[in-house]
Amino acid sequence: MSTPSTGRTPDKKKKPLPYFMQKSEDCAMPSFQNRRTLADHVKDNMLCAGRKSYFQRIVYVGRHPKVTGMTLRDRFLKLIKEIQEHTTNEIKLFGLMINFDGYTVHMIESAEDTIGEYMQHLAASDLFEASRVVLVYNNINQRFFRKLVWRASDYLNELPRSELDQQDPRLTQNTINAFLVKVYRLCKMVREEELDERKSFKSLYLDENYEEHTPDITVLEYLLGLDCLFTVPEYAAFYGKLPDVTSFRDRIWPIPKDLTPYDVFEAGKYDVNLTFGGN
What positions belong to coiled-coil segments (predicted)? Predict the structure, then answer.
């Protein structure tokens, strides 16, 4: 009979897999006794994505004073550099920033705290004449970019203008949807270009291949005029900081163990007798 090896160390206790990755039929679905919250599903999504941090994606548009694309790029990068030098969050800002002839379309991805700091600094700057936050996507499963990518273009004024039917009851939703489809397509095209190892030189300018997927001035101005969307300062003020809430546990000592009302057994003149027995 073989004897176990004395030099072998016992296996460390492994963390249990999320319920949908377990093979046992008993664990295929969460049981009634072990109820799962939305936070559990968020953690499962993060585990599948190989992340430990909660990530967020935001798409916003802006109109700027008439400056060159490279000048605007330098001002944004200076702002981001200042944030990264003072932040305590190790997660950097990722995404795609595109400038079209004085207009901006930005898609940024990062930890929620990092984006909050960025939006607060952006709101305090004088970079925008107008701005709107078009998309806020929480708990994204996959990032487009692993760094911050900048592109500029000067063909916006040459694009044909969209004809928007102001009488269409679904005009706002359809315009936002079409805009986001184009933004996602631009992100995918730029990402493929960034990952293409055959191109040793990555141009900072978009060429004519991107024109088809670029929202025109009519669409950008329509989005900038929508009151139903937050401006960058409004978004920063609404989501940027958590209120300092003091609970009863911070004011009462010792901490109560039982929250049963003191008058629970007192019956008033108009109370209903729920025992159905006796007076």
Answer: none
